[in-house]
Design goal:
- The protein is mainly alpha-helical and about 210 residues long.
- It has a domain at about 15-125: Ribosomal protein L17 (50s Ribosomal Protein L17, Chain: A).
- It has helices at about 15-30, 40-55, 60-70, 75-85, 125-130, 140-150, 160-170, 205-210; strands at about 35, 95-100, 110-115.
- The protein is elongated.
- It starts with 13 loop residues before the first helix and ends with a helix.
Length: about 210
């Protein structure tokens, strides 16, 4: 009975499964990413990550242990010389599984497994980039205006000696240009005002006139 055994046999015998995992691990180390079924990718992650951790300790014993699993000299050389330097500061989680569309024919779930440090889009290179500070539009003008208002105007101290020097200094005479005289506007002849009518003779004048007759 297989109580508590959670290893996915992948429909293969033990020897076949170990040979397949060794070949897939070597291909992943050489090509940095491979496409396979989702079940094989999950099984490969548990198989290759302990080997990547073992490569951090660059000794003859570690090389022989890793070679017993991979059975590929080129893959072991690249793992200890190139990949070990990339993953030196990463405490595990060396691989990433990305799901893809199902395979035509049997509709199997496909996935791509890759080394995290060799992906330029999601890798460590973008994480190292400094975060740019975002500012709202017109932020510089708004920040400069309060600063100009709050900053006191610099005034130079004037001593009595400076005032005496200014008073003794000769004043340069500047010729003043004569302003052009505006031409007088032509005078318009006013029409003679109408003579007021003689007031009417009062009643007393009329009486005196009758008596003189």
């Amino acid at each position: 009975m297989r109580h508590g055994k959670k290893v996915n046999h992948l429909g293969r015998t033990d020897s076949h499964r170990k040979a397949m995992m060794g070949n897939m691990a070597a291909s992943l180390i050489l090509h940095k990413r491979i496409t396979t079924t989702l079940a094989k990718a999950k099984a490969l992650r548990g198989y290759v990550e302990p080997l990547l951790t073992k490569s951090k300790n660059d000794t003859t014993h570690s090389c022989r242990i890793v070679f017993s699993y991979l059975q590929d000299k080129d893959a072991v050389t690249i793992l200890f010389r190139e990949i070990a330097e990339k993953i030196a500061n990463r405490p595990g989680g060396y691989t990433r599984i990305i799901k893809m569309e199902n395979r035509l024919g049997d509709n199997a779930e496909m996935a791509m497994i890759e080394l995290v440090d060799y992906n330029t889009v999601y890798g460590n290179e973008t994480g190292k980039a400094e975060k740019k500070s975002t500012r709202r539009r017109g932020g510089k003008g708004k920040a400069a205006a309060p600063a100009a208002k709050s900053a006191p105007a610099a005034t130079a101290e004037v001593t009595p000696a400076d005032n005496q020097a200014v008073a003794d200094a000769p004043v340069a005479e500047t010729p003043v240009a004569a302003a052009p005289v505006a031409e007088a506007a032509p005078q318009v002849e006013e029409a003679p005002a109408a003579e007021p009518e003689a007031p009417a003779a009062s009643a007393e004048n009329e009486e005196n006139a009758e008596k003189g007759e």
